[in-house]
Amino acid sequence: MARSVLYVGDQQPSLPAIIKDPSGSVVNLTGYTGVLFALRQAYDTTNKFETNGVIVTPSAGAVRYDLGSSDLAALVPGVYVGQWTLLDATSKPQHVDAGEFEVRTGF
């Protein structure tokens, strides 16, 4: 999977994903009550932020996170990793890798 590029201070683009199980099948999110998106610098142990995302199309496993005004504002350029946390009807968490992100400064 290619590393996504984000820029310090940007508020776009939204970060969409299709949630899949380990075998590559789409996870039906019907009945799930929420999704969180978290971002941390690679090899760090502390999230830079973790906040609510949106379940877009439950039956297709589609989720999205819309960047907030301060999410990327103070990030140091480098490699970051993202993670989705899915919450089912009993609020039991399920974590799913969201991939790697390269944060850069703009011109």
Q: Can you offer a commentary on this structure?
A:
The mean pLDDT is 93. 0% of the residues lie in helices and 47% in strands. It has a five-stranded mixed beta sheet with strand order 1-8-7-3-4, with no helix packed on it. A three-stranded antiparallel beta sheet has the order 2-6-5, with no helix packed on it. The chain has a single domain, classed as Immunoglobulin-like (Sandwich), CATH 2.60.40. With 107 residues, the chain is an all-beta fold.
Major sheet details: 5 strands, mixed
Count of discrete domains: 1
What is the terminal-to-terminal distance? 26 Å
Number of strands: 8
Helix content: under 10%
Unreliable spans are none
Report the order of strands and helices: EEEEEEEE
**Order of strands in the sheet with most strands:** 1-8-7-3-4
**What is the approximate shape?**
elongated
Defining key terms:
Immunoglobulin-like; 107 residues; elongated; single chain; mainly beta
What is the fold's blueprint, element by element?
Elements (H helix, E strand, L loop, with lengths): L3 E4 L7 E4 L15 E8 L7 E4 L1 E4 L4 E4 L12 E10 L5 E12 L3
Parallel strand pairs: 1-8
Antiparallel strand pairs: 2-6, 3-4, 3-7, 5-6, 7-8
A few lines on this structure:
This protein has 107 residues and is mostly beta strands. It has strands at residues 4-7, 15-18, 34-41, 49-52, 54-57, 62-65, 78-87, 93-104. The protein has one domain (4-104): Immunoglobulin-like (Sandwich).
